[in-house]
Amino acid sequence: MSLTLAPGISFVEQDGARVFLDLRRDRYFALGEPADSAFTALTRGKPNEAQQARLLKLVDENILIDLPFGENPRPCRQPALTASALDEMPPTAPSRWRVLAAGRSIVCAKRRLKVRTLASNVERLQGLKTSLAADVRPACELEREAIAATFAAAGRLVPTLDQCLALSFAMARACLKSNLDTHLSIGVKLRPFEAHAWVSIEGIVVSDRLDNVRPFATILLI
């Protein structure tokens, strides 16, 4: 038996707790004891017979799958973030047409999130990223700051408060189409539980302030 995470399942460990994201069902969850202990043993490659029985129940729940030569489950990779482009705005304001284009992209992202599942939106963005992977290039001087300033200005036209997912999907698509090394992160924090999304380019956050994303641990990285 070689158990690994089922498609669409990811997890992160934060403050001594483990949180899962089921992308297909668009939900966050925890396993609870003793299933969590069995999962810990699986990550270390040493589940005992009783724990294996618990793990098989997770297979029945579509959290794990039995995959020959599958890797032991690993938590989501945490990208290193060093700064925010919003802290270093460009000397010139973005052009009106760029701001309007960014605003339209946010509106479209909001609409897609309403009519399509989160999984569908993630797959669409992953497909775009894969198709453009061969053309990724380093950001030019002030390019990250210009993108951040453009979408910040667009946010004054199209409300983005509590709309971090729509803003992130719109920004990520714009950055990827410019062939930039872009990541969209969905993160969580505990006590109280909150979820957040942000976009970074080469370790620089472009959709938010660095202090706003630091409390969150990435549970899904695109």
Question: Which helices and strands appear, and what pairs or packs with what?
Answer:
Blueprint: E1 3-5, E2 9-14, E3 17-22, E4 27-29, H1 35-43, H2 49-60, E5 64-66, E6 83-84, H3 96-115, H4 118-132, H5 143-154, H6 164-177, E7 182-189, E8 194-201, E9 204-205, H7 210-213, E10 217-221
Parallel strand pairs: 6-9
Antiparallel strand pairs: 1-5, 2-3, 3-4, 7-8, 7-10, 8-9
Helix pairs in contact: 1-2, 3-5, 3-6, 4-6
Describe the structure.
By secondary structure, the protein is of the alpha+beta class. It folds into two domains: 3-66, no CATH class; 83-221, no CATH class. The chain contains seven helices and ten strands. It has helices at 35-43, 49-60, 96-115, 118-132, 143-154, 164-177, 210-213; strands at residues 3-5, 9-14, 17-22, 27-29, 64-66, 83-84, 182-189, 194-201, 204-205, 217-221. Helix 4 packs parallel to helix 6 (164-177). The protein is elongated. It starts with a strand and ends with a strand.
